Amino acid sequence: METMKYLLAAIAGIWMADGLALLVAPRQVIARVREVLDLSSAMLRWEGVAICLGIILLLGSRGLHYELLWTVTGTAMVVKGLFLAVGPQEWKTGALTWCLHREDVDYRFWGLGLCTLALLLLNALGWLGVQ
Length: 131
Prior knowledge:
Blueprint: H1 2-24, H2 26-39, H3 47-60, H4 67-86, H5 89-99, H6 104-124
């Protein structure tokens, strides 16, 4: 169980890093993502990572505070990963185009959301705040 806590804390770290990057420099982050996707659509193989992390979140968060939040978030991660892995190409292209052509403020809201998820997960793990 202790290993699972470290894996969940690593997920929180990823969320925090991504969230802070989107808060501080959304235009630069999205520009880099667009460049990578233009160079090689094979980089979309990260969907497997999203699926694995979603499953870890689903399995590891049983009994934690905010369990429903982790169930919904883990399920969303798995569904997103599966969609990017096996979904129709035209749907994936449309979704990625929509996601990568938002206003900077939209990315900042996503960044706030990711930072919030990270802090809540660390709190649920007992690593932040008093329980």
